[in-house]
Structures are given as structure tokens and as C-alpha cells.
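quick one if you have a minute, typing this from the bus. theres a chain ive been looking at and ive put its sequence and its fold in C-alpha cell form underneath. please have a look and point out which stretches look like helix strand or loop to you. anything you notice is useful, everything is just below.

***
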Amino acid sequence: MYVELSPDSTPDQMRRLIGMEGQIKDRLQQTLGLAVEVKLVEPGSIPPDADQFRIIGK
């Protein structure tokens, strides 16, 4: 699963999220019951027309 960082995230927020990548993976596995590989990517790196879901958390 690719998780696109918000373009308005500060560098400190991005570093914190990258540090939490493993925790995000574990939480998704607990919630979904599936092993999911998580990769945080730069804003705009997932094409808007990609055949994927976009989840925006605020």
C-alpha cells in the first residue's frame, strides 16, 4: 500500500510519519486482518488517474 504524504505537511511532520511507517503497517494488519506492506511516498507521486483508492485523512 502506498500512502501519499500531504503536500502541506511540514518536514517535521513528514519525518515523524516516516518514522511511524512500521506502526501504520501493524495497525492496518490488526484492523484488516491482512499483512500489508506500507510505503510512504512524496506528494503527487501517485497519478490521479491511477486505478487505486485515495484515502485522505485530516
User: Anything to note?
Assistant: DSSP finds two helices and two strands in the chain. Residues 2-40 form one domain. The two ends are 19 Å apart (CA to CA). The chain has a mean pLDDT of 79.
